[in-house]
Design the sequence.
């Protein structure tokens, strides 16, 4: 067993149960929200909607969700605490930074080789979120998050990946990434982590499920990392049929020990229009995995043991490997 931090406090890793490893509650653009408040609408209504969806998810048998919303995606923990106090599942929150290009201007003059110089502030911020808690809320981050998208490992992205690697080794919490599967950027992420001495078995390369390139996925999995088959429902990127077929194939090839299943869904994401999501990707929600994906995997011969491995055992192993090094 191991202690895992959730929004409501520490729990035993044995109580994680069925875990969705890559979801969001809200994805928001804070400056837009502060200056154009009608976008979000009524705060109480949004909270009630999130509580209702998460409690339905608990009823569907989900025990834990990992909310990978970090700086760059509008993380705001007091709102998440209000929600967590009313739901019957565990919520694990993350620290890290989400960018595809540069670090935010706040960081551009701070840190090594910058105008002001000094220590890398990202490391100190990440470690504080994990060890002391997030800005007076008492909530500790349980996982580290970073991103690499189509621009690849830019200077800013490399700085974030390295800071995440250092904070991971100092604290022992796992790393979860956003990657751009078509650009095979998971390989680039692992390259940076390896240079920083990271044990890649402690890393989840996210959004691998956007790819049906089994050669690429095997190349990643053979390093020992986990693959996030974590965007079920995001059908504009890759349709349901191909997402399912890829997981089936990877299970047949013996990789169920390397995969986790999730949806990257949210209650509200201001990067997208709710109405467009509803019309173009109607199944992109918290329930798609339980309602459609898992039944289809079973029909195609994925065993209950493999499903449990990808949804219960692998998440637990990811959080139980928590030594500092
Ligand atoms: Zn995400």
Sequence:
């Amino acid at each position: 067993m191991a202690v895992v931090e959730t929004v409501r406090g520490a729990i035993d890793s044995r109580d994680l149960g069925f875990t969705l490893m890559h979801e969001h509650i809200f994805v928001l653009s804070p400056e837009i929200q502060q200056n154009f408040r009608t976008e979000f609408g009524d705060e109480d209504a949004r909270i009630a909607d999130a509580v209702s969806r998460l409690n339905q998810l608990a009823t569907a048998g989900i025990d834990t969700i990992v909310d990978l919303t970090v700086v760059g995606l509008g993380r705001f923990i007091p709102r998440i605490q209000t929600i967590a106090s009313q739901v019957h599942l565990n919520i694990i929150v993350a620290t890290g930074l989400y960018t595809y290009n540069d670090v935010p201007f706040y960081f551009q003059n701070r840190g090594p080789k910058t105008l002001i110089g000094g220590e890398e502030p990202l490391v100190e911020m990440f470690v504080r979120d994990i060890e002391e808690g997030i800005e007076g809320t008492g909530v500790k981050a349980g996982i580290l998050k970073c991103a690499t998208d189509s621009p690849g490992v830019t200077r800013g992205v490399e700085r974030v990946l390295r800071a995440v690697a250092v904070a991971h080794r100092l604290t022992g919490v796992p790393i979860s990434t956003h990657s751009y599967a078509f650009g095979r950027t998971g390989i680039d992420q692992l390259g940076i982590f390896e240079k920083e001495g990271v044990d890649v078995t402690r890393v989840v390369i996210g959004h691998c499920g956007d790819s049906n390139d089994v050669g690429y996925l095997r190349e990643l999995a053979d390093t020992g990392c986990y693959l996030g088959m974590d965007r079920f429902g995001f059908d504009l990127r890759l349709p349901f049929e191909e997402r399912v077929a890829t997981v089936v194939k990877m299970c047949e090839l013996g990789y169920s020990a390397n995969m986790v299943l999730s949806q990257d869904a949210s209650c509200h994401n201001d990067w997208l229009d709710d109405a467009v999501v509803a019309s173009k990707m109607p199944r992109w929600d918290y329930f798609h995995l339980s309602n459609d994906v898992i039944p289809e995997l079973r029909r195609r011969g994925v065993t209950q043991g493999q499903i449990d491995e990808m949804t219960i055992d692998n998440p637990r192993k990811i959080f139980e490997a928590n030594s500092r090094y």
The chain has a mean pLDDT of 97. The first strand starts at residue 3 and ends at 6.
